[in-house]
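2024-03-11 09:14:02 INFO worker-7 job=invfold-0412 stage=load source=structure_tokens
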């Protein structure tokens, strides 16, 4: 357990370009005196640091990160205080994305004529000069970031993908410029000079495109938190000691204050109702569609929405103590604590980049030593050829091309996939946790059946009229069921909180509500209706009674229907070797009924949002790779905690943005499809990276001259460029194969 003197804060990190950058920042922060632990999340571009403020300040942390070649925004929100993230980092990321998009578009537009000239422009007057003029702005202006970042890493005695891009494109361009200006240098030595202006430009364009796709895939990780913050109103109405109502900012609410909540308002803090009654929509916390009756001595929670009535309550938990703030904190901690899956390209690059630089220099030195007569010429040629053939173009394309095709194919099937990390994780999933309401069920109460006494439905217009005037949310299901039934005028209408409604028409008293309402009014109930009601209750249905003139006339069964395809989806998951669990905030009878209907053996009922995330964590600790499927705000913490979060598209925006996958149609049958598609796509990514690496290994070896002692063959830089292009073509072609494969 951390020392109580330590503070935990989350800071946005700027200028990280790959997963290895995050590792460098994390290592640097963890080596800082006064820091207990530091975790850097590359996907979210944040660093969560637990530190002793007496030993180190945020300003000092920033200097530490700057020493690694990056930057830290120190005025970020504190998750412990549940404050909003600042606008600055969001504005920075948006501006960065727009700038990257502009650079990519211009690089592609300028590279197209360059490629045409390079391939088919032989013999055109001043072709080399035209290519030089067109490529210079692409390489040194649009691709300037690669050179500045490579220089920054060099100053810190480090190297990354930017280093290899800068060296290969920079040396190829400068070498081409030399060959264009001084062709006699090579001609006098019997070598035909070539230029690779177009190769330098196309490489820059491709890698910029890869970076753009990666930035888009990462998404706005903080937007889900911002929307959760939006559930809390900025101001509240309090009653002071003199009994006067006044509006104050929500951050000035103290424990013990009496707050007033009017119809349609959001509840600002957790508390206990002291006066009045109403129904409150708690679906964002519980996930259940039926609003809950609130009357004196019942709890209310921040972020929930009051419906038609008004009431007063005493604030019990404010700020970071509210249930909403806890969910926000859990999402932040889950997102920050998950170790991001290191992209294979970055893993390879961490060894590959310095190795390629070393091989190119070694090749040059060996040629100088072993061939004193022509060593300089051939060594320089080998050095440049190694760097050209080893360009990470294919490595840069391996992931984004497969993701583009996979995401496109998924979209056609109604499946949205957020990033490559979720794709890789999906292949390892062996446990799926499913929410009930809105995931396996439709998420809204409907009338399953109405049984009339003696089969006589002549009084349905009165039943319809009663429910039409009712404030109870279940009444809406009855109103929808009756459709265009004509209404009957009612007199002396009463809403009886927690029981139902009462009115008079035709000289008779009519009631609609629960069994308690009938008992209190001494209503006679026929044995047939009583028996039918018991059957429905055993099936976890809610029963609404309709009575008039002292006798029960009809009963309606209200239920949340299991979605079509839920059972087949569960069966497919189990056939894939995945254990399936059902979690719900509903009662055990409802949970058992849905679990039985969907073919799920393991379920838990009455589960609160923190408990859902806790259950997912328990499964992870037992060695499971967990996919969480949900649709509500109440599922957000569990979605963030899970190895793979899957949101149903017709659910809350918070769930959708927290999850890494979204089922647009909310069809549960798409869940196993999403996992199969992910496995196919990640296999393609691995194949792409394998072939890209093999091309580089073979190409680099030949470019260095390993075949020369045996065959006298030296790889021409032009052939090196062709080999590099071929590796890119093979990667793209392999990705396109996904389009024709069945999920």
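2024-03-11 09:14:09 INFO worker-7 stage=emit residues=743
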């Amino acid at each position: 357990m951390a020392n109580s003197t330590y503070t935990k804060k989350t800071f946005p990190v700027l200028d990280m370009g790959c997963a290895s950058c995050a590792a460098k920042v994390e290592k640097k922060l963890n080596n800082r005196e006064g820091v207990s632990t530091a975790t850097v999340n590359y996907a979210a571009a944040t660093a969560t640091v637990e530190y002793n403020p007496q030993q180190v300040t945020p300003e000092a942390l920033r200097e530490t990160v700057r020493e690694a070649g990056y930057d830290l925004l120190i005025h970020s929100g504190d998750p412990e205080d549940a404050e909003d993230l600042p606008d600055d980092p969001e504005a920075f990321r948006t501006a960065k994305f727009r700038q990257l998009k502009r650079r990519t578009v211009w690089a592609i537009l300028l590279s197209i004529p360059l490629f045409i000239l390079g391939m088919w422009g032989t013999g055109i007057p001043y072709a080399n000069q035209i290519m030089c003029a067109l490529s210079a702005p692409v390489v040194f202006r649009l691709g300037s970031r690669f050179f500045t970042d490579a220089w920054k890493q060099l100053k810190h005695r480090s190297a990354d993908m930017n280093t290899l891009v800068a060296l290969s494109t920079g040396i190829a361009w400068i070498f081409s410029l030399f060959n264009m200006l001084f062709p006699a240098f090579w001609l006098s030595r019997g070598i035909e000079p070539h230029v690779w202006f177009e190769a330098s430009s196309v490489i820059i364009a491709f890698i910029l495109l890869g970076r753009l796709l990666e930035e888009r895939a990462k998404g706005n990780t903080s937007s889900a938190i911002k929307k959760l913050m939006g559930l809390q109103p900025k101001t509240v109405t309090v009653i002071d000691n003199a009994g006067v109502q006044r509006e104050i900012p929500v951050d000035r609410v103290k424990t013990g204050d009496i707050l007033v909540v009017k119809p349609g308002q959001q509840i600002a803090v957790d508390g206990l109702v002291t006066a009045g009654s109403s129904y409150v929509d708690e679906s964002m916390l519980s996930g259940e569609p039926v609003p809950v009756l609130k009357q004196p001595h019942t709890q209310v929670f921040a972020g929930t929405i009051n419906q038609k009535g008004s009431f007063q309550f005493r604030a019990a938990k404010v700020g970071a103590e509210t249930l909403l703030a806890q969910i926000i904190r859990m999402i932040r901690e889950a997102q920050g604590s998950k170790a991001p899956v290191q992209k294979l390209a970055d893993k390879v690059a961490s060894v590959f980049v310095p190795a390629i630089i070393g091989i190119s220099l070694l090749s040059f030195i060996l040629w100088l030593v072993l061939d004193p007569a022509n060593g300089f010429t051939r060594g320089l040629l080998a050095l440049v050829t190694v760097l050209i053939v080893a360009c990470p173009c294919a490595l840069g394309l391996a992931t984004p091309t497969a993701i583009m095709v996979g995401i496109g194919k998924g979209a056609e099937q109604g499946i949205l996939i957020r990033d490559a990390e979720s794709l890789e994780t999906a292949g390892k999933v062996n446990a799926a946790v499913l929410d009930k309401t809105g995931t396996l069920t439709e998420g809204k109460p409907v009338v399953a059946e109405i049984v009339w006494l003696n089969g006589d439905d002549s009084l349905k217009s009165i039943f319809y009229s009663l429910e039409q005037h009712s404030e109870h949310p279940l009444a809406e299901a009855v109103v929808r069921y009756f459709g265009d039934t004509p209404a009957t005028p009612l007199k002396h209408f009463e809403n009886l909180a927690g029981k139902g409604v009462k009115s008079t028409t035709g000289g008779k008293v009519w009631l609609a509500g629960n069994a308690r309402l009938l008992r209190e009014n001494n209503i006679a109930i026929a044995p047939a209706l009583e028996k039918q009601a018991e059957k429905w209750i055993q099936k976890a249905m809610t029963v609404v009674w309709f009575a008039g003139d002292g006798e029960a006339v009809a009963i309606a069964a209200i239920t949340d229907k299991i979605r079509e395809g839920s059972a087949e989806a569960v069966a497919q998951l189990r056939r894939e070797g995945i254990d399936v669990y059902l979690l719900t905030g509903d009662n055990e009878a409802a949970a058992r009924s849905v679990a039985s209907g969907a073919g799920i053996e393991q379920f838990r009922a009455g589960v609160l949002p923190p408990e859902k995330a806790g259950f997912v964590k328990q499964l992870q600790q037992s060695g499971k790779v967990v996919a969480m499927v949900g649709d509500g705000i109440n599922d957000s913490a569990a979605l963030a905690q899970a190895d793979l979060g899957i949101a149903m598209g017709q659910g809350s925006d918070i769930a959708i943005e927290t999850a890494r996958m979204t089922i647009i149609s909310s069809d549960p049958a798409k869940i196993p499809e999403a996992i199969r598609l992910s496995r196919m796509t990640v296999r393609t990514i691995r194949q792409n990276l394998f072939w890209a690496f093999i091309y580089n290994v073979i190409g680099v070896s030949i470019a260095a001259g390993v075949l020369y002692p045996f065959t006298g063959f030296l790889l021409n830089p032009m052939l090196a460029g062709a080999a590099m292009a071929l590796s890119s073509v093979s990667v793209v072609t392999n990705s396109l194969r996904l389009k024709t494969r069945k999920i």
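2024-03-11 09:14:09 INFO worker-7 stage=report msg="The domain at 7-76 is CATH 3.30.70.100 (Alpha-Beta Plaits)."
2024-03-11 09:14:10 INFO worker-7 job finished
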